[in-house]
Design goal:
Elements lengths: L1 H26 L5 E3 L5 E3 L6 H51 L2 H19 L6 E5 L6 H8 L12 H9 L4 E9 L3 E8 L2 E7 L2 E6 L4 E4 L10 E3 L3 H4 L1 H7 L3 H4 L2 E7 L3 E6 L4 E3 L6 H18 L6 E5 L7 E4 L6 E2 L1
Parallel strand pairs: 3-5, 6-9, 9-10, 12-13
Antiparallel strand pairs: 1-2, 4-5, 6-7, 7-8, 10-11, 11-12, 13-14, 14-15
Helix pairs in contact: 1-2, 4-5, 7-9
Length: about 325
């Protein structure tokens, strides 16, 4: 449309130039004088001004002609604009029909397949997959998660999709899938660290400190880890498990974490000692109680004494009762 408008402007400029040329032509017509044989001056007879007027009329005709051309250009511009708008509308309608019918997506798939074929032909295809960081994760599981990509175009491997599938594996905490051109896909994983065994409905499952389930296990496996008992216990136990990782002297003595009334936790040690943690879902409160218990053990070795239970329900005091006694000890 812009080009049509510019041509109209040029037509206007031509009209202006021609008008000034016509004025110059009229001004240049002056009377001429001649000398007679006796030396007398004779004034040349003026020719009829009909020719001048005719030429002036010709100028008017030219101006009218250019005005008509200008109007014709404007009309042409309007016709072009209307035609272009109509073409755009038709193109939009056709594009919508093709998109709704799936023809555009199909064409894109064909182009993508052709591009993948060209990449394979020039050597950019997967020939090997390397795996790093998988110690407890089965290598076959990782390869299955990545998918059958060997022999495919390395430029067309869905790295994000492969990474997401690898991270769905129980042992994998985080994964990265990268290309090593021209022919290698590298998979790196960081595995979860087992923190406890969750017992629920007769099934044992390995969990990490965040409460994420790693895998189901048999009764004798990971017997050195504490047991977490109760419905919904893995998620609720995450705060306690994370706090225990900072106090190995306590965590290595724990036999089970028992959920009480879906409100709080009891820690049962391997020697039968029960530790009652505060009634709070806040991890900071539980961590403070475990830290205080650790300080008491470091100072007095109370976890190795003949104590029936240690009550940490009140953040401001510690109550204990020795085995075979009824009196409480306030520390």
């Amino acid at each position: 449309m812009r080009l049509a408008h510019d041509s109209a402007c040029k037509t206007t400029d031509v009209v202006t130039v021609n008008e000034s040329s016509v004025k110059g032509f009229v001004v240049s017509r002056t009377a001429k004088t001649k000398r007679g044989p006796a030396g007398k001056r004779k004034t040349a007879k003026r020719k009829s001004s009909t020719r001048v007027h005719a030429r002036r009329d010709t100028g008017r005709v030219r101006r009218n002609t250019y005005d008509e051309r200008e109007y014709a250009g404007i009309a042409f511009n309007r016709i072009v604009m209307i035609s272009a708008a109509g073409i755009c509308m038709v193109a939009l309608v056709i594009g919508g029909v093709l998109w709704s019918g799936g023809y555009v997506g199909g064409a894109a798939n064909v182009v993508n397949e052709k591009a993948a074929g060209v990449a394979r032909d020039v050597g950019f295809k997967v020939k090997k997959i390397t795996l790093r960081g998988a110690h407890d994760t089965a290598h076959a599981d990782v390869l299955d998660a990545v998918g059958p990509i060997v022999g495919e175009s390395i430029l067309h491997v869905d790295l994000d999709g492969a990474r997401a599938r690898v991270e769905e594996l129980g042992w994998v905490r985080v994964a990265a899938v990268t290309r090593l051109l021209p022919d290698t896909i590298n998979v790196s994983v960081r595995e979860r660290r087992p923190s406890a065994v969750w017992q629920h409905d007769g099934v044992l499952a390995l969990i990490d400190a965040s409460g994420a389930v790693i895998q189901t296990i048999s009764g004798d496996a990971y017997s050195q880890l504490p047991m977490v008992v109760g419905a919904g216990a893995p998620e609720a136990a995450s705060g306690v498990l994370k706090a225990l990782t900072d106090h190995p002297a306590i965590s290595e003595r724990i036999h089970a974490l028992i959920r009480i009334g879906e409100r709080r936790w009891d820690l049962k040690l391997r020697n039968g000692l029960i530790i009652k943690l505060p009634d709070s879902a806040r991890p900071t409160v539980q961590a403070a109680a475990i830290n205080e218990l650790s300080q008491l053990h470091d100072a007095q070795g109370i976890l190795d004494q003949e104590i029936e239970y240690i009550d940490l329900l009140d953040p401001d005091r510690v109550l204990m009762r020795r085995r075979g006694q009824t009196a409480l000890i306030d520390r």
